[in-house]
């Protein structure tokens, strides 16, 4: 009897879920839900661990909504270098008014 009760509960759960997901407004909500951690083209996959010389940088881009949060510095040669957002030297560079925040990149980079 315990097995049939568990089966019945599972069947009710599956039926309820399928009915809710078949409604048009729920399909739109489900379609907008994130599949996982944000790994869009502007998220960093590799990080530079040493301090970058300030004189080589022309700006930075935010990637703080990614996991892990990051700052991408753009060099004067237009190379993007990912750094950890929490690093002290990164925080100091972000306070520099001469280092502008650049618009998001349209290309994928690591």
How are the secondary structure elements laid out?
Blueprint: H1 2-22, H2 24-32, E1 57-63, E2 70-75, E3 80-84, H3 88-94
Antiparallel strand pairs: 1-2, 2-3
Estimated helix fraction: 25-40%
Give the overall shape: rod-shaped
| CATH class categorisation of the largest domain | Mainly Beta
Q: Sheet with the most strands?
A: 3 strands, antiparallel
Number of helices: 3
Number of strands: 3
CATH topology of the largest domain: OB fold (Dihydrolipoamide Acetyltransferase, E2P)
- The CATH architecture category of the largest domain equals Beta Barrel
Low-confidence parts lasting 5 or more residues at pLDDT below 50?
Answer: none
Mean pLDDT reading: 78
Give me the side-by-side strand order of the main sheet.
Answer: 1-2-3
Order of helices and strands: HHEEEH
Strand content: 15-25%
Please, how many domains? Answer: 2
Measure the end-to-end span: 57 Å
Class computed from helices, strands and strand pairing: alpha+beta
Domain Chemokine interleukin-8-like: 40-97
InterPro entries: Chemokine_b/g/d (IPR039809), Chemokine_IL8-like_dom (IPR001811), Interleukin_8-like_sf (IPR036048)
Organism: Ochotona pallasi (Pallas' pika)
Signal peptide: 1-21
Describe the protein.
By secondary structure, this protein is of the alpha+beta class. The protein folds into two domains: 2-32; 35-110, OB fold (Dihydrolipoamide Acetyltransferase, E2P), CATH 2.40.50. It is built from three helices and three strands; from the N terminus they run H-H-E-E-E-H. The chain has helices spanning 2-22, 24-32, 88-94; strands spanning 57-63, 70-75, 80-84. A hairpin with a 6-residue loop joins strand 1 and strand 2 (70-75). It is rod-shaped, with a radius of gyration of 23 Å.
């Amino acid at each position: 009897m315990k097995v049939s009760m568990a089966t019945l509960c599972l069947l009710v759960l599956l039926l309820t879920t399928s009915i809710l997901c078949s409604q048009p407004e729920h399909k739109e909500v489900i379609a907008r839900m994130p599949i996982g951690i944000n790994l869009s083209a502007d998220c960093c996959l590799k990080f530079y661990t040493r301090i970058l010389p300030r004189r080589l940088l022309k700006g930075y881009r935010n990637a703080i909504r990614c996991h892990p949060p990051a700052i991408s510095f753009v060099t004067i040669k237009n190379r993007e270098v990912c750094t950890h957002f929490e690093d002290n030297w990164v925080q100091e560079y972000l306070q520099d008014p001469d280092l502008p925040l650049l618009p998001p990149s349209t290309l994928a980079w690591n």
